């Protein structure tokens, strides 16, 4: 029981931070902030894994996935065409590719038995990156 309290205390500020990102009224800025948050949380998850805390690592990796999902949803909700206004879509595409590389490196550094923790995140990042790239590169049929 006394081990659970520090974990909850560590996770509470992170959830508050993600809620602050969700509160951003500008959808494009929200997307960018969510991806920056994901980068920071991924670094924190590496630290938690190095410290041997698998439960916190799992929670942080889940928060990375939530942040990436929030970023993609925010861009969709903006209603802007990625061909005509590509700035934030391209930023998101670049950041998701960078996150994907970082997750792959983290996966290689992990113990083989722990790798399933990160595989779901890797798949989600790859799918999100491909959707963003596809949106930027293809025109919608009229």
Total number of strands: 0
What overall form do the CA principal axes indicate?
globular
This entry's quaternary arrangement is single chain
Count of runs of 4 or more consecutive helical residues: 5
Percent in strands: under 5%
Structural class: mainly alpha
Task: For the record, give the distance between the C-alpha atoms at the N and C termini, rounded to a whole number.
Answer: 59 Å
Percent helix, as a range, is over 70%
Count of domains: 1
Instruction: Tell me the major beta sheet.
Output: none
SSE series: HHHHH
Please tell me how large the radius of gyration is. Answer: 16 Å
**Which parts are unreliable, with pLDDT below 50 for 5 consecutive residues or more?**
1-14
Overall average residue pLDDT? 87
List keywords for this structure.
142 residues; mainly alpha; 5 helices; 80% helix; disordered N terminus
Describe the structure.
The chain has 142 residues and is mainly α. The protein has five helices and no strands. Helix 1 runs parallel beside helix 3 (54-78) and helix 3 runs parallel beside helix 5. The protein is globular and about 50 Å long. It starts with a helix and ends in a 5-residue tail after the last helix. The model is unreliable at 1-14 (pLDDT under 50).
SSE blueprint and pairings:
Elements: H1 4-22, H2 27-50, H3 54-78, H4 87-109, H5 116-137
Short précis:
This protein has 142 residues and is mainly α. The chain has one domain.
């Amino acid at each position: 029981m006394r081990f659970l309290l520090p974990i909850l205390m560590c996770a509470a500020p992170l959830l508050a931070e993600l809620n602050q990102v969700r509160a951003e009224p500008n959808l494009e800025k929200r997307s960018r902030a969510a991806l920056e948050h994901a980068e920071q949380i991924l670094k924190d998850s590496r630290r938690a894994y190095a410290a041997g805390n698998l439960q916190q690592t799992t929670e942080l990796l889940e928060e990375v996935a939530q942040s990436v999902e929030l970023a993609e949803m925010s861009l969709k909700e903006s209603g802007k065409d990625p061909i005509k206004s590509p700035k934030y879509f391209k930023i998101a595409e670049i950041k998701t590719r960078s996150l994907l590389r970082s997750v792959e490196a983290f996966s290689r550094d992990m113990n083989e038995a722990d790798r399933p923790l990160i595989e779901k995140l890797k798949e989600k990042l790859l799918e999100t990156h491909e959707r963003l790239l596809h949106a930027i590169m293809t025109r919608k049929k009229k």
